[in-house]
Design a protein that fits this description.
Elements lengths: L14 E8 L2 E7 L6 E7 L5 E5 L2 H13 L2
Length: 71
Amino acid sequence: MKNQKKLKYRGGPSEILESITYEGYKIKSLKHGNTGHILYKFPSKMHGWEPCWTVDLQTAKNGIEKYNQRS
């Protein structure tokens, strides 16, 4: 047990980017600290319109269009 190496966390903090407005809805975006991916937050029909994150901006835009069309 004494010979075990301590692992050092090498990830960085996530960076909040400018929001994107699309059809009156504000898409929040951030750069993930560990992976460097840009993530977009949008309402998801699959999850009862709960906010979800995606790496694809077009998916977020499609989700917003469906959200605006709901009855």
